[in-house]
Structures are given as C-alpha cells and as structure tokens.
Amino acid sequence: MELLGRPPDRASFETRLDALVARNARASGGVIEVLNLIGTQAEGLLDRLPPAARARIATATERALHHAAEAAHGTRASVPDLPGWRARLLTTAMGAAGGMGGLPTALAELPVTVTVLMRAIQDVAAEHGFDPAEPGVRFDSIEVFGSAGPLAADDGANLGLIGTRVTLTGGALRALIARVAPRLATVLGQKLAAQTVPVLGAAAGAATNYAYTRYYQDMAHVHFGLRRLAIEADRDMGEMVVLFRERAGEGRVTRG
After folding, report:
1. What is the pLDDT of residues 163-184, one digit of tens each?
2. pLDDT at site 253
3. Is residue 2 part of a domain?
4. 3-class DSSP state for residue 16?
5. Which pLDDT value is given to residue 255?
6. Phi then psi for 8, rounded to 5 degrees?
7. CA distance 209 to 90
8. pTM score, two decimals?
9. What is the mean predicted confidence (pLDDT) over 205-231?
10. Cα-atom radius of gyration of the chain, to the nearest Å?
11. Is the pLDDT at 254 greater than 60, yes or no?
C-alpha cells in the first residue's frame, strides 16, 4: 500500500530532489575506491576472467535473478526487515566465504548474494512506504538492479529503466530479468574478478560485497525515494525522471 504523505512545498520538494541526485552521484565512488584499495584497477577488471567464466556469470546471474525474485519476498514472513548495516554485514561475510576458494566458491556464492541484495532492496522499498508484497513494487525492486552500474560515468543513466509499472506476470518478469541480467552480470563479474586476486580472495570478496550492497541500497533509495516524491507532489513519474536527469546533468549537487 502506498500511503500519501503531506504534499511538500516547493522548497521541500527541491531539497528532497537534490538529496536524491546527491545520493546517486556519490554511490559509485565507494566501489571504485574499494577496487583500487585491493590493488585492482577498475577498468578492464573483467579481463582477469577466462571467457568460459564470463559466460557462466551471465547464465548464473539470470538464474539468480529468477530465484531471488521469489526467494527474497518469501523470507519476509519469517525474517524481519534488516537495517541497512546488517544487510551489508551479511553480504560482507558471504563475500569473504565465497572468496576463500577462488572462482569456484565465488560462483557458488553468487545466487545467495543476489537474493540477499534483492531482500535489502525490498527493505528500502518498505522504508519509503511501499509494500514489497505488491507486484509493482517487486517489479521495481528488480529494476533497481538495472542501474547503470557502479563504474558508469553517467549519473543520470541510473534511472534509465524506470518507467510505468506493469503487472508482474510471468512473461513481464522474464522480459525484465532478460533486460536487467546483462547489466548485473557485468557488475558481478567485476566482483568475482576481484575475488580471484591471489592471497586477497577472501578480503576482496568481503570488501566488494560490502561496496556493492551499499551501492544497490543507495540506488534503491534513489528509485523509491523518487517514486515517493512523485506521489506526494502529485507529479508524473516520467516528469520526475526528466527533472532528476537535468539536475544530475547540471552538476548542481556535488559528490562530496
């Protein structure tokens, strides 16, 4: 259920929109810092992986998204919403375990990590007053994975997949996952490549999982925060996306 808040005045509207633009602009920086910290250049990271492994990542990512779409929602009845830091702590521990055995264990960890990330995104949706049980909200949660990615240069590109909600039918879900999976596979491939760094596999797995979890939580806040603002201001979502991109393109808000 989407509860309407008090309509924001113009000053509040501008402040909230600028805050979302700032959050979006800052999100990628932490990931790049982590990759550089573990001694791995962000650019060309996927070149570390053999072609067969890259192909496996693409297939595993699509399967993981299909599983996570239902599994994450299914945990809501038995597992309460996790504060953002607890979700990051959980994925950090999983990344460390996955990195201990190199690429084989990292690949095995991948679907579990995707499910936990999906649940973290749904928790953010609930924080903004949306009900993750609603098909449209679950659809939006998958769309968050379609964010341009933590190494993307165009801040405004992170909202490229936001559009009119559709009914979450089997066909619509498959189409969305097919569209989102390649972008997420690139992100996860960068993570897995970092986990293959000699000696640092476990540390790299922990660090990248933390950074990517934080990134997708930030993207979820941008996505659902913008939807909430549109509802409360009685503005069309397409118009909100245009305003967001204009702000991001103007560079009015610093990455600070």
Report:
1. 555 566 678 888 888 888 888 8
2. 47
3. no
4. helix
5. 42
6. -75, 145
7. 9
8. 0.83
9. 90
10. 18
11. no
In a domain, 162, yes or no: yes
Distance, in Å, from the CA atom of 196 to the CA atom of 107, rounded to the nearest integer, reads 11
Mean pLDDT on 96-122: 83
Query: What is the count of structural domains for the chain?
Result: 1
Within a domain: residue 169?
yes
DSSP 45: G
Summarised one tens digit per residue, pLDDT across range 114-141 is 888 888 898 899 999 998 888 888 888 8
> What is the full DSSP assignment across 154-215?
-GGGGGTT--------HHHHHHHHHHHHHHHHHHHHHHHHHHTSTTTHHHHHHHHHHHHHHH
| Alpha carbon separation from 178 to 29, 94, 242 (Å, rounded) | 27, 26, 25
Give the length of the chain: 256
Q: What is the dihedral of CA 228, 233, 234, 240, to 10 degrees?
A: -70
> Per the domain annotation, does 14 fall within a domain?
no
Domain range for 120: 31-250
What is the C-alpha to C-alpha distance for residues 99 and 126, in angstroms, rounded to an integer?
A: 31
Q: Which structure tokens are listed for 219?
A: 């993207």
